[in-house]
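Model it.
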Amino acid sequence: MRLATIAAALVVALCASASSGSRPSIIAATAGLPPAPPAEARAYGNDISWPQCPKGGGGYGLPGPMAGASFVVLGLTDGGSLRANPCLAHQVLSVKARHLWTGAYAITTYPTPAELTRYGGVGTLSERLGRVGAAQADFNLSTMARVGLQSPTVWVDVEPRTPSPWSASTVNNNAVIDGVIDRYAATGIRAGIYSYDKAWKAITGGRVLAGVPTWVPVGHRGRDVARTTCAEASFAGYRPWLTQWTDDVRDYNLTCPEVTARTTVGTLGIYSPPVAGYMAILFAAN
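Modeled.
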């Protein structure tokens, strides 16, 4: 009882600490949620997007989540920031039928001149870029509402894009990213960042984002490297919440729940809630 009281107090303190920062921390209630795998306090799943759409339907016909998946992260876009995944509605129905925990991610890009004119409004360039970022977040939120997809966290995919290259100014690039994160926060949704060291440094200057979860890919280096990466500092300065590896057929992911408590500067990660509580921070139950 004494340990339970201490743990409960720590959870309350951590939640209060996170909510007092510049970006709100949304932690969903865990009552009534489906069970998550207890092994090593980790859960395994996949991410899917337009490449899993049928051939002739905008994709490559790649397979969906593996049979043993606990969760799936669904791509909202088709490779651009203001274009929807063409088969997202079908994918949402499919994962709900399997009662998988669901999350969401979306590409973020630097605006074209036409997009800056359409969404940027007036003001300084930084202000205009922030509005474009907000418009990208709004597009994704509208897409989620249209297909009936819920997720307490939306991952912001920050990578080089040949059709929509990032600018040479890290200040300008960060203005777009801030616009996306702030708009999600304004609607009560946590934003996480998906990226990798080289890309993050080139696009943002290696910016440290306290309190923002990170999702780190390890490429073809496999599950064991993905597991050990959980204990390493990510591209944004703090240990990741998710890691990913691929075999070119599927993208595989695992949770890193031991860093759940590390949501703000000064928080030491001294308490990890049960896996179900961790899952509810990142995913919606079905």
